[in-house]
Design goal:
The chain contains 19 helices and eleven strands. By secondary structure, the chain is of the alpha+beta class. The protein has three domains: 136 residues, no CATH class; 106 residues, Butyryl-CoA Dehydrogenase, subunit A, domain 2; 255 residues, Up-down Bundle (Butyryl-CoA Dehydrogenase, subunit A, domain 3), CATH 1.20.140. Strand 6 and strand 7 form a beta hairpin. Keywords: FAD, Flavoprotein. GO terms for molecular function: acyl-CoA dehydrogenase activity.
Length: 537
């Protein structure tokens, strides 16, 4: 026996994930199951895993000028990047919730997105933004009618040509500037009216992703901060004046390109009402924040899968790692966190598809920032713990854990950091009091049978009540978000998961002795049952 772990490959990401399958069925998305199973098998194949590794090994290259000195601002990608992009497009994943009229399209999208993200995260950035652009573009019916066939297309078209000539397109975002970051009110990019549109002058510090065929951009017009549709090519076919200054050297995935750009009279078309740019583009951000929850859940899932796969093969001190009681506690604890995130992701996806009732609005508007804050923070901790299961080999970049570990922090930062999410939670509650009442009543009902949860539901009531001291309300905002997110996860697990999973989650997450390190589940936890559910392969 050489005691070396076999690389995890040749498995089906969908059929090996019981919680994900159950979530798809519960959402009424059974018509999508055959496609999800086929995509899960393709993603877990050796050829796809190798393609994902190559896409992250060969970084994008910026070509600012052609050989004659003409400005082209073109980003060149490795063929493996295009392979990952083509897979997602051909499987209809990019704009599925808006293009697929079968029931459960949002749940099916969440499942497909999370599986793809486990294998290659960088390609999900332009996909996420393209999906999120749809409700924003719908505010300009004429523009959306022209773009819809290309947004909904299943043909991948990487050509750098005017979007009118393309079979399919990608849409990115350009909001933040170097002097303000998340404080979009400080943006200085100007938009001056010209014949047929606007002319933009200024910069964007984060422009994702530069190879997209168009971007939704914030700029100041005479009426205030407004949203603009800025294509790579002007309507007449000439290159638009969006100049890429450099590609960002990111900590996480190497496959995708993020950039800084300057606008030197770039042509744009206003979308939405003038002076209402932030509310207009926030419609986009609400979906991409949901994607961040999906991304965190997917990275946790892949970390747990890799850790259990390794522990079942590796021997130490006379036993397989998975047979060691303390390692069982660690693996089971991580598995609980992963399933809780998956359940939250699927319930949030359901809300985006259902009727606009107060409870569903609460999941869209209130749970989204709380869920993003909590799940992304927990994914960072879990990825480090999973790396530790591998010992020194986990710290080597030859294996899968380095890429997973480096990718987790961006989800906490992108589309609003933890503080921004906590403050958005408070604002959402103030704007949607009826929705918050519906969520509170749902938690009361769902948690009524658990004595350990009832006092926390009551505490949530007090924490989220209007405060006479705004300073304290804001200072405690992260506590509010953490409590709300964990209560929702407990409520969902009690309703949707086996009792062994729900019991262990509730017994640990609401016990101060559990702490913040994994592997401190109480003696009552059914460790092997939890591990075997997480990875039944």
């Amino acid at each position: 026996m050489d005691n070396l772990t076999r690389e995890l490959s040749g498995y089906n990401l969908y059929t090996s994930d019981l919680a994900l399958q159950e979530g798809v069925c519960r959402a009424g998305a059974g018509a999508h199951e055959a496609e999800l199973e086929a995509y899960g098998a393709l993603l877990g194949s050796q050829s796809t895993l190798r393609m994902a590794e190559e896409a992250n090994h060969h970084k994008p290259e910026l070509h600012t000028f052609d050989r004659q000195g003409r400005r082209i601002d073109r980003v060149e990608f490795h063929p493996s990047w295009h392979g990952m992009m083509r897979m997602a497009r051909e499987h209809g994943m990019i704009t599925q919730p808006f293009a697929d009229d079968r029931p459960g399209a949002w749940a099916a999208y969440a499942a497909a997105f999370s599986m793809h993200h486990q294998i290659e995260s960088g390609s999900q950035c332009p996909h996420s933004m393209t999906l999120a652009s749809v409700p924003v573009l719908c505010q300009d019916p004429e523009l959306f009618e022209a773009l819809a066939p290309k947004l909904f297309s299943r043909r991948y078209d990487p050509r750098d040509i005017p979007l009118e000539q393309k079979d399919s397109i990608l849409v990115g975002m350009g909001m933040t500037e170097k002097q303000g970051g998340s404080d979009l009110r400080t943006n200085t990019t100007r938009a001056e009216p010209v014949a047929g549109g606007y002319q933009l002058t200024g910069h964007k510090w984060f422009f994702s992703a530069p190879m997209c065929d168009a971007h939704l951009v914030l700029a100041r017009s005479d009426g205030g901060l407004s949203c603009f549709f800025v294509p790579r090519y002007r309507p007449g076919g000439s290159k638009n004046a969006v100049q890429i200054q450099r590609l960002k050297d990111k900590i996480g995935n190497r496959s995708n390109a993020s950039s800084e750009v300057e606008f030197h009279g770039a042509w744009g078309r206003m979308v939405g009402k003038e002076g209402r740019g932030i509310p207009t583009i926030i419609e986009m951000a609400n979906i991409t924040r949901l994607n961040c929850v999906m991304g965190a859940a997917s990275l946790m899932r892949q970390c747990v899968t890799q850790a259990i796969h390794h522990a079942r093969q590796r021997h130490a001190f006379g036993k397989r790692l998975v047979e060691q009681p303390l390692m069982q506690n660690v693996l089971a604890d991580m598995a609980l966190e992963s399933e809780a995130a998956t359940q939250l992701m699927m319930r949030m996806a359901e809300a985006f598809e259902r009727d606009d009732s107060p409870l569903e609005r609460a999941y869209q508007r209130i749970v989204t920032p709380a869920g993003k804050l909590w799940s992304t923070k927990r994914s960072i901790e879990l990825s480090a713990e999973a790396m530790e299961v591998f010992g020194g080999n986990g710290y080597m970049d030859e294996g899968p854990m380095g890429r997973l570990y480096r990718e987790t922090p961006v989800l906490s930062i992108w589309e609003g950091s933890g503080n921004v999410m906590a403050l958005d939670l408070l604002r959402a509650i103030a704007r949607e009091p009826e929705a918050m009442l519906a969520l509170r009543d749902d938690l009361r009902q769902g948690c009524a049978g658990d004595a350990a949860l009832r006092p926390h539901v009551a505490a949530l009531d007090a924490l989220l009540a209007p405060s006479a001291d705004p300073y304290l309300q804001e200072a405690q905002a992260r506590r509010h978000a953490q409590l709300l997110a964990t209560l929702i996860q407990a409520r969902l697990l009690r309703e949707r998961a086996p009792s062994a999973v729900a019991d262990a989650f509730i017994a640990s997450r609401f016990d101060h002795a559990h702490g913040r390190i994994y592997g401190t589940l109480p003696a009552s936890a059914a460790l092997r049952t939890i591990i075997d559910r997480a990875w039944p392969v």
